[in-house]
């Protein structure tokens, strides 16, 4: 077994083990992938202030996100088709998150259903909602999340339509994979994945198949989103969904200070500053660049979380020191899952925790809550001067 010391190690194993169409699905952004790339490269532009002669004992990464205690402020982001990266992937990722003490978010577009994950885990998880044209279906989905005792509803706002990711179209992405000569040739080189998949609880979209009727192709993410996602979602509809849910709400996919103010005004418990990992509007700025303007706009009226581009505990520290209360990771845990299942997700979390803890110590801090802009060196033009 190779020695795993960072997230890039897990990514290499993921690529080796998982069918090409699912690895590509994770490892792509929309169109030119500029935003996807800059999400990570912009983190590199921020530097850290080394401080010495500080008592480093008694360090802790523990914190809270929306009032819930977390071992570190890093939640697993909702990721569609997680159960195609590894058999029963959502159950495995949820278990790893639970054992570690961080929140797991189940995507609407998951393979394991809400009920599967609730049955397999002891603690409440977060449920991510995509709103559908079929309002009865959306209501039933919300009710199913309530019945499963989910502790927060994460409403994703940046995917009313699906950004174009060239590789997914060329690969004919579907769950389960359609058996074309190209996919068969690739699957023949992924035996371990295939054998485990034979005994998976599910191989199709578990929250959808059996719960809706009249869909032309339930295996295709592209067809489903084009036919079913609600393109009319607006703030008044979001307010109604929040009311219907009645519990903690996180609004995800906010990248503009004006939208952040609206979300805070609506009473969201938290927002996630996110560009969907560079998978939606290519050409948008990275999340980390938009964090400060958004924090300034909401003035503490809602908790601010950030995702998109986090590949290390150092990235987490930079987001927290900049002012985020929490973070989410998407690909960083998916690489782990694709590489080694549940153990891989635990490894990804452990790698990130260790990097966060050591970096915190070398910056002269012992608690994540004490991190602040005083720990960072941010280039003067980091946010840039953009004309509207
Ligand atoms: C393969 C993949 C599938 C995703 N599916 C969803 C989804 O179903 N719902 C959602 O709200 N976000 C989804 N996202 C976005 C993530 O929740 C998160 O915003 C993003 O992964 C953060 O960027 P990172 O991967 O650089 O950490 C997905 C991201 C990836 C990589």
UniProtKB/TrEMBL annotation:
<dbReference type="InterPro" id="IPR000262">
    <property type="entry name" value="FMN-dep_DH"/>
</dbReference>
<dbReference type="InterPro" id="IPR037396">
    <property type="entry name" value="FMN_HAD"/>
</dbReference>
<feature type="binding site">
    <location>
        <position position="130"/>
    </location>
    <ligand>
        <name>FMN</name>
    </ligand>
</feature>
<dbReference type="GO" id="GO:0005886">
    <property type="term" value="C:plasma membrane"/>
</dbReference>
<feature type="binding site">
    <location>
        <position position="274"/>
    </location>
    <ligand>
        <name>FMN</name>
    </ligand>
</feature>
<protein>
    <submittedName>
        <fullName>Alpha-hydroxy-acid oxidizing enzyme</fullName>
    </submittedName>
</protein>
<feature type="binding site">
    <location>
        <position position="25"/>
    </location>
    <ligand>
        <name>glyoxylate</name>
    </ligand>
</feature>
<feature type="binding site">
    <location>
        <position position="107"/>
    </location>
    <ligand>
        <name>FMN</name>
    </ligand>
</feature>
<dbReference type="InterPro" id="IPR008259">
    <property type="entry name" value="FMN_hydac_DH_AS"/>
</dbReference>
<feature type="binding site">
    <location>
        <position position="128"/>
    </location>
    <ligand>
        <name>FMN</name>
    </ligand>
</feature>
<dbReference type="Pfam" id="PF01070">
    <property type="entry name" value="FMN_dh"/>
</dbReference>
<feature type="binding site">
    <location>
        <begin position="78"/>
        <end position="80"/>
    </location>
    <ligand>
        <name>FMN</name>
    </ligand>
</feature>
<keyword id="KW-0285">Flavoprotein</keyword>
<feature type="active site" description="Proton acceptor">
    <location>
        <position position="276"/>
    </location>
</feature>
<feature type="binding site">
    <location>
        <position position="276"/>
    </location>
    <ligand>
        <name>glyoxylate</name>
    </ligand>
</feature>
<comment type="similarity">
    <text>Belongs to the FMN-dependent alpha-hydroxy acid dehydrogenase family.</text>
</comment>
<dbReference type="InterPro" id="IPR012133">
    <property type="entry name" value="Alpha-hydoxy_acid_DH_FMN"/>
</dbReference>
<feature type="binding site">
    <location>
        <position position="165"/>
    </location>
    <ligand>
        <name>glyoxylate</name>
    </ligand>
</feature>
<keyword id="KW-0560">Oxidoreductase</keyword>
<feature type="binding site">
    <location>
        <position position="156"/>
    </location>
    <ligand>
        <name>FMN</name>
    </ligand>
</feature>
<feature type="domain" description="FMN hydroxy acid dehydrogenase">
    <location>
        <begin position="1"/>
        <end position="381"/>
    </location>
</feature>
<dbReference type="GO" id="GO:0010181">
    <property type="term" value="F:FMN binding"/>
</dbReference>
<feature type="binding site">
    <location>
        <position position="252"/>
    </location>
    <ligand>
        <name>FMN</name>
    </ligand>
</feature>
<feature type="binding site">
    <location>
        <begin position="330"/>
        <end position="331"/>
    </location>
    <ligand>
        <name>FMN</name>
    </ligand>
</feature>
<dbReference type="GO" id="GO:0016614">
    <property type="term" value="F:oxidoreductase activity, acting on CH-OH group of donors"/>
</dbReference>
<keyword id="KW-0288">FMN</keyword>
<feature type="binding site">
    <location>
        <position position="279"/>
    </location>
    <ligand>
        <name>glyoxylate</name>
    </ligand>
</feature>
<feature type="binding site">
    <location>
        <begin position="307"/>
        <end position="311"/>
    </location>
    <ligand>
        <name>FMN</name>
    </ligand>
</feature>
<dbReference type="InterPro" id="IPR013785">
    <property type="entry name" value="Aldolase_TIM"/>
</dbReference>
């Amino acid at each position: 077994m190779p020695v795993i010391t960072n997230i890039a190690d897990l990514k290499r194993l993921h690529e080796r083990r998982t069918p090409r169409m699912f690895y590509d699905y994770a490892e792509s952004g929309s169109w030119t992938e500029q935003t996807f790339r800059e999400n990570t490269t912009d983190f590199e532009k921020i530097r850290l202030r080394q401080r010495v002669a500080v008592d480093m004992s008694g360090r802790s990464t523990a914190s809270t996100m929306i009032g819930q205690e977390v071992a570190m402020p890093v939640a697993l982001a909702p990721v569609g088709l997680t159960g195609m990266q590894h058999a029963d992937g959502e159950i495995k990722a949820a278990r790893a998150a639970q054992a570690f003490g961080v929140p797991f978010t189940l995507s609407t577009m998951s393979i394991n259903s809400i009920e599967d994950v609730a049955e397999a885990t002891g603690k409440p998880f977060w449920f991510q909602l995509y709103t559908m044209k079929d309002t009865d279906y959306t209501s039933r989905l919300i009710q199913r999340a309530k019945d499963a005792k989910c502790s927060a509803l994460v409403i994703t706002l940046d995917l009313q339509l699906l950004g174009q990711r060239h590789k997914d179209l060329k690969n004919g992405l579907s769950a389960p994979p359609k058996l074309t000569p190209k996919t068969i040739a690739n699957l023949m080189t992924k035996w371990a994945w295939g054998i485990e998949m034979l005994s998976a609880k599910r191989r199709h979209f578990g929250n959808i198949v059996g719960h809706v009727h009249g869909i032309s192709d339930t295996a295709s993410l592209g067809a489903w989103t084009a036919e079913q996602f609600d393109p009319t979602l607006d703030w008044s509809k979001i307010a109604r969904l929040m009311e219907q849910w009645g519990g903690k709400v996180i609004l995800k996919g906010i990248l503009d200070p004006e939208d952040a103010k609206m979300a805070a005004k609506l009473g969201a418990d938290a927002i996630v500053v996110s560009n969907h990992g560079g998978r939606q509007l290519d050409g948008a700025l990275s999340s980390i660049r938009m964090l400060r303007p958004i924090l300034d706009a909401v003035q503490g009226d809602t908790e601010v979380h950030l995702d998109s581009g986090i590949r290390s505990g150092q990235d987490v520290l930079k987001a927290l020191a900049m002012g985020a209360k929490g973070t989410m990771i998407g690909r960083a845990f998916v690489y782990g899952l694709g590489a080694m299942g549940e153990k891989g997700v635990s490894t990804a979390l452990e790698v990130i925790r260790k990097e966060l803890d050591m970096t915190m110590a070398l910056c002269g801090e012992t608690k994540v809550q004490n991190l602040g802009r005083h720990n960072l060196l941010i280039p003067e033009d980091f946010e840039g001067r953009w004309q509207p």
